[in-house]
């Protein structure tokens, strides 16, 4: 028999692992950026842009991962179509937009970050659509609950 919300549990643990990886990278990032700068012959301004961009993106990324953990925890409890979940999803859009703007600013000194900007901007759109679908489904769920 298939366990309900097994995918949510797997995603929740994957998210926690990613949060741990972000913390480890926060410590190792200066060394990694220096190494990358030597390998790619990256100018000091480019190295600083990558380093500053990473540390600035850590805050919205960590907040997004914590909100994802809350969302997946609620889903595992069977609380799927609720307005609190819709609000969490819409906050994820803002976190992605923040990362997109930070990487766009840092792309001035390290142009390959434009790729990250485009990916996170697209992710904003996708998450926004999911949030709107969840909102509509929540309205339908509430109407269904009121029907006898």
Largest sheet: none
Fraction of helical residues: over 70%
| Backbone shape | elongated
| Structural class determined from secondary elements | mainly alpha
Strand content: under 5%
Radius of gyration: 19 Å
How many helices?
Answer: 4
Q: Write down the overall mean pLDDT.
A: 93
Distance between the termini: 31 Å
Let me know the number of strands: 0
Output the helix-strand order.
Answer: HHHH
Low-confidence regions: none
Give a structural overview.
- By secondary structure, the protein is an all-alpha fold.
- Helix content is 84%, strand content 0%.
- The chain is built from four helices and no strands.
- Helix 1 packs antiparallel against helix 2 (44-76) and helix 3 packs antiparallel against helix 4.
- The radius of gyration is 19 Å and the shape is elongated.
- The relative contact order is 0.11.
Q: Which features characterize this protein?
A:
148 residues, mainly alpha, 4 helices, 84% helix, elongated
How does the SSE layout of this entry go?
Blueprint: H1 6-39, H2 44-76, H3 83-106, H4 113-146
Helix pairs in contact: 1-2, 2-3, 3-4
What's this, in brief?
The chain is mainly alpha-helical.
């Amino acid at each position: 028999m298939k366990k309900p919300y097994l995918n949510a549990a797997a995603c929740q643990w994957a998210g926690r692992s990613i949060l741990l990886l972000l913390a480890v990278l926060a410590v190792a990032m200066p060394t990694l950026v220096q190494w990358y700068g030597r390998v790619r012959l990256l100018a000091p301004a480019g190295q600083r842009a990558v380093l500053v961009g990473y540390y600035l993106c850590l805050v919205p990324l960590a907040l997004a991962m914590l909100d994802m953990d809350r969302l997946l925890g609620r889903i595992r409890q069977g609380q799927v179509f609720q307005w609190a979940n819709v609000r969490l999803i819409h906050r994820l859009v803002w976190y992605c937009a923040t990362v997109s703007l930070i990487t766009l600013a840092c792309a001035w000194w390290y142009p390959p970050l434009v790729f990250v900007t485009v990916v996170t901007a697209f992710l904003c759109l996708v998450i926004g659509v999911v949030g709107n679908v969840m909102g509509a489904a929540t309205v339908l769920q509430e109407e269904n609950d009121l029907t006898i």
